[in-house]
Amino acid sequence: MRRRFSLASSLAALAATAWLGIATPAQAAGTLDAVKARGILNCGVNVGAAGFSMPDSQGVWRGLDADLCRATAAAVLGDANKVRFLPLTAQQRFTAAQAGEIDVLFRQTTLTLSRDTTLGLRMVHVYLYDGHGFMVRRDANLRSINDLRDATICLMQGTTNEAVTADWARTNNIPIRPVLFDRLDNAAGALFAGRCDALGTDATQLASARSTAPNPNDYVILPERISKEPYGPVVRRDDPEWFDVIRWVVMGLISAEELGVTQANVAEQRGSSNPEIRRLLGVTPDTGQWLKLPQDWGFQMIRQVGNYADLYNRNIGPNTPLGLPRGMNDLWTRGGLLYAWPLR
């Protein structure tokens, strides 16, 4: 009886180990070591969201999320171009992360309790604050979300938006007719074709979808937000060393803006006497040693990709087709929510 119990326990342990994905190459070596050995970062992104991750006419991935992937590659490998972009739908993204098919997910992913505790993944650090909203045709003359009673609403399946919309409708006793799609472009296309009365998703994604409409001025985003949708990168739970790297890539970009270090002035800023700037840019070796990264990791990602403001303004800011003001995504010193830990 004792021997049978031992065998069963061993088999159970082996099964648990297999479920956790410990046998995948990135996990066996540690993701940081695996990325360095491979010489390329496998980065999960959206299949296509203007301003966030979408191939341009030359097939080059552009957008805020794409640039966050590049910043990571610059920090780890010294070269922002050493990225393999893997486009994933909302339903594919977590499975790909769990299986080790990607090293990190930068894909407009809301950080939530259930995702952080039940998927074998870790939600890292917020890089964009958002909230669920609705977009409608301007000529529908809808002024408020309360006007959506009995509306047909296009939503993306497998996202927080599907659940948030259902909760809002039920709580406020507003009957709706949801129509589910696997991709933002398909859901937006249905609105543009008149198959839905509204498109429901995060406000930044609504702006992204509107920018691709045949005539963007035909559509208006209603003013209310019905949820909190903080975006952040996602990594596997079993690799705290890699978690630290991704967290400090994001916070390093925010810190650079706080410290006034930009893509345009980063070279001259290496001569600064500010100890935080010197740590960020590798003039003193502290942060590189602590993260097991090259000493100039911060310098490389800012020189090659930019600081947080550079990324935001280039991809989704006021002078882009999305036209998004900083708002909540401004620095805490200017009334926003962005705040990085001290570099010490």
What does this structure look like?
- Belongs to the bacterial solute-binding protein 3 family.
- Residues 1-28 form the signal peptide.
- It comes from Roseomonas acroporae.
- The chain is α/β, with parallel strands linked by helices and 344 residues long.
- Helices cover 40% and strands 16% of the residues.
- The chain contains 15 helices and 14 strands.
- The protein has helices at 2-19, 25-29, 31-38, 64-77, 93-98, 113-118, 160-171, 184-192, 203-211, 240-259, 266-269, 275-280, 286-291, 297-304, 308-315; strands at 41-46, 54-55, 61-62, 83-88, 104-105, 121-123, 128-130, 132-137, 151-156, 176-181, 198-202, 219-221, 229-231, 234-236.
- The strands form 5 sheets. The protein has a 5-stranded mixed sheet, sandwiched between helices.
- Helix 4 runs antiparallel to helix 14 (297-304).
- The longest helix has 20 residues, at 240-259.
- The chain starts with a helix and ends in a 29-residue tail after the last helix.
- Residues 1-27 have low confidence and may be disordered.
